[in-house]
Amino acid sequence: MKQSAQATKGGGPVLVLGLGCERGAGASEVIALAEQALRSASLDPAALVTVASLDTRADEPAIQAVARHFRVPFRTFDPTTLEAETWRLANPSEIVFRHTGCHGVAEASALAAAGRDGRLVVPKVKSARATAAIAESFQPVGVASLQGESVASSVASSMGRAV
Q: Hey, which CATH number is domain 20-158, 3.30.420.180, 3.90.550.10, 3.40.630.30, 1.20.140.160?
């Protein structure tokens, strides 16, 4: 069954891909996981408007490669901002908290980028070295820097996007 998230000219819901990965994870692995997450819920990759992750992954080549693959901006959030999403997570993890200071990276970053009214449409899925989750947003998902958030401008500028 096709999910309701579609990128429409009329401002309909859009998708945010949240990613987490180990340092040095392969780009092909993380791209394949992202594509699998979209396929698992029959979501249209054209509805994807941003990739989001933890700020310590801003320079992670595999996550940057995913943003380039889908030709969308890459946003990052600090652990405090992601921890504020814990109540909305489908899979909070104490292990992740011990390593990052937040109870989830993929789900929390997708939800943080999707905004207050966003909802998970694909809870965390895993590969050997990465996690992905997808949230649906019903509000504009900007790339402007906000408190607790940064924009990976190197990725956005390499794609010719203003940040």
A: 3.30.420.180
